[in-house]
Amino acid sequence: MSPWDKGRAEVERLIQEGKLQRIPATTYDGQTLRIPRNHLNSAEKTIEHDLEGAYTLVYDAMRKALVALLAVQGLRATSKGGHIVIHDCLKAQLSPQADNLLRAYDRMRRSRNNVEYPPVGAEEITAEEVRDDIKTVREALPTIERLLEVLPVF
User: Fold this and answer.
1) Could you tell me if 54 and 124 are in contact, meaning their C-beta atoms sit under 8 angstroms apart?
2) pTM of whole model > 0.85?
3) What phi and psi, each to the nearest 5 degrees, are found at residue 49?
4) What CATH class is the domain 8-150?
5) Is the CB of residue 66 less than 8 Å from the CB of residue 90?
6) Domain spans of the chain?
7) Could you tell me which of 35, 30, 58, 37 has the C-alpha nearest to residue 46?
8) Which stretches of the chain drop beneath a pLDDT of 50?
9) Phi and psi (nearest 5°) for 74?
10) Kindly report the CA angle at 78 between 149 and 133, in degrees rounded to 5?
11) 27-32, long-range: CB within 8 Å, 24+ apart, which pairs?
């Protein structure tokens, strides 16, 4: 079963609910992950003076890399679907092979939400957490790149 077939009913449901929309598919090239890589480089330089900003860059690097997986398929999250629909769509298509990657994204999404909208009494993000997630995203990029090369248009 190809990734296009796997999860098809779930992706169609997300489109029907207005959480995903069809767009003209983008073409994968060597520049597709340039922005996520730049965000990681910027995050590394920002850790010492702006932890929250650094973490937002790390999260955005992961999110934009995963958004590229949708874009090569001709899919895009809508404001109704938000960032969670990226996870839901890719999980339907790529689980269980990409479960670790998607768990990391979901954890980072929740951490970034706590950075942006800190709950009362929440612990602040640490430099170690930011560095760990920079490593997580850097290690995820080769997998994402391989998927970009093979995912067909939905």
Assistant:
1) no
2) yes
3) -125, -5
4) mainly alpha
5) yes
6) 8-150
7) 58
8) 1
9) 80, 35
10) 60
11) 27/72, 28/68, 28/72, 28/148, 28/149, 32/68, 32/72, 32/148
